[in-house]
Amino acid sequence: MNIIKPAALLLAATALAASSTVAATAADSPDGTRVTGLQQKADQVLADSPKPLRVAADAVEYEGLTVTDAPVTKGAQDLACDYGHLCMVVHGTKFDFYKCQTWKLTNWTGDGPFTNNQTRGTVARFFNKDGSVRWTSTAYQAGTATWDPIWSLRPC
User: Fold this and answer.
1) Which residues share a beta bridge with 97?
2) CB under 8 Å, gap of 24 or more: what pairs does 98-102 form?
3) With b meaning 16 or more CB within 10 Å and e meaning fewer, what string describes 42-75?
4) Band (155; pLDDT cuts 50, 70, 90)
């Protein structure tokens, strides 16, 4: 009988520790849904972002955009980016744009690799706060960009 009580306490402590780990990686949003750490990162740099279509531990998918944790890269040549896509790393998060629309951004600062692997000649535009063009990238192009700051972008 003395063995059962400590075993039950150990089991309860293990369950409590496991739930604490889960709570550290996901939180409740105001609408009661679970938000992963990756989605929190995406929300920090996507202003007025649409509701994600799919949220998983390894990816957040929007209509026209997939957000993942960035692999450690030495530069743009190491940044995997499918044909027809515009990819970049901001704050350790990879953004893979594949829909032609204007994306509003916030906290888009720092330096990071990018790859414009869209159809040859497609021009991606990066905008200042006032809507003026800060810089452009014509496909195919890869390199390192300074995002300080980019307020919106249009991949095509």
Assistant:
1) 65, 86
2) 98/64, 98/65, 98/66, 98/155, 99/63, 99/64, 99/65, 99/155, 100/64, 100/154, 100/155, 100/156, 101/64, 101/154, 101/155, 102/152, 102/153, 102/154
3) bbebbeebeebeebeeebbebeebbbbebeeeee
4) very high
CA angle 80, 96, 33 (to 5 degrees): 130
Is the per-residue pLDDT at 74 higher than 70? no
32, 38, 40, 43 alpha-carbon torsion, rounded to 10°? -110
Q: Are strands 60-62 and 93-97 parallel, antiparallel or unpaired?
A: unpaired
Q: What is the mean pLDDT of the chain?
A: 75
